[in-house]
Amino acid sequence: MRLSRRELFSTTAALSLGLSDGRAIEPIPRSHLPRLKLSLAAYSFRQWLDIKKPKEPAMTLTDFIDYAAARDLDAVELTAYYFPETTPEYLGKLKRQATKLGLDVSGTAVGNDFCVADPEKLKSQLEHVKSWTEHTARLGGKTMRIFAGTVPKGDTEENAVKRCIPVIQEACEYAARWGVILALENHGGITATAEQLLHLVQSVKHENFGVNLDTGNFRTTDPYGDLAKLAPYAVTVQVKTEITAKGGKTEEADIPRLIKMLRDVKYRGYVALEYEAKEDAKIAVPKYLTEMRKLMNAQG
User: Fold this and answer.
1) Which helix or strand (DSSP H or E) is residue 292 part of?
2) Cβ contact 144:109 at 8 Å
3) Fold of 33-297
4) 49, 60 in Cβ contact below 8 A?
5) pLDDT 10s digits, 83-115
6) Whole-prediction pTM
7) Which of 266, 213, 208 is nearest to 238 (CA)?
């Protein structure tokens, strides 16, 4: 029997880790009714939270937490890019503020690339993720979004994936010590399609691992269909307000369809609005939060 290139690649990658298809991770078992909790990603206010600009940011993370509390949200997702410092004192301050305002930290989001070819750079990327795992735990975060990465110029996807899988495995083992679940996002590169991401998810064998389902990141011919394939593996969700199919125009996302998709797999967890559209976030975000809350609170 002749194997296709993709099948041969998948088998080779599994064998390189001493794994077999029989041990592939299964969708998260959910026997209870769905339970969706509304969160807001700090990335939605990136223009105001940007600490890299010469001037002081117009909004701080403490301001952002206050904003979320004023809108009676369940949680906040705190993006690593907007932390002016990560001392235990500062992290404790944010956790204390959120707790007193009745907010959970649904998770954090970190930027990384586990496809880099240079061993020292790859080690540095892993250490960055490990450090943010500790920061997330100190914040009381449940999950931490990570990326897989992009194939370096002149390299192959097969080589990049072979490097990526064991590094994610090690990151998950470290995250388990801190009680944090790592969530791999569908974010282009070697996770540009549902099949690519599922290959990674099914190759990493750890209970502290799952998918960060970003509803706006697929540029495939059937984004909704691909999201549905990943929904059973989701440990956290980021809802975007737009969606773009391959070869098509950017359109308003069908948020009722996305929420139904989560209900259909009995998803229980946080659903964070991550706003990236053109309308001013301070105008658009409250409208979308109202819509999402109504849909998420609806029964059936």
Assistant:
1) helix 281-297
2) yes
3) TIM Barrel (3.20.20)
4) yes
5) 999 999 999 999 999 999 999 999 999 999 999
6) 0.90
7) 213
